[in-house]
Amino acid sequence: FKSHSLQFNAEITLTDLERLGAPEVDMLTLKQAGLVGELAKVVKVIKSGALTKAVALKGVGATAGAKVVIEAAGGSVA
Question: CB-based burial of residue 37 (10 Å sphere; 0-12 exposed, 13-18 middle, 19+ buried)?
Fold first, then answer.
């Protein structure tokens, strides 16, 4: 069994956020940058790679490990 709602979920890495370079990231920013598909409704940041810039996430989730890294870099998860 494979859930049909999975097509609306997307994941991005800390490395993707670093490359994006935006101080504030939301769903629209990620779609415009091509990091997530147009159908995505739920996006989660996973702890993969490194982040050195402060990034404020708006309406984007993060795993516990990714949240620690984002906050350590001076960013926030809302």
Answer: exposed
User: Does the pTM exceed 0.90?
Assistant: no
Cβ contacts of 66 within 8 Å, gap of 6 or more: 14, 45, 46, 47
- What's the rounded Cα separation, in Å, for the pair 1 and 64? 28
**DSSP state, 36?**
S
Which residues are CB-neighbours of 40 under 8 A, at least 6 positions away?
A: 8, 9, 10, 27, 30, 31
Distance CA 67, CA 10 (A): 17
Tens-place pLDDT, residues 1-15: 888 888 899 999 999
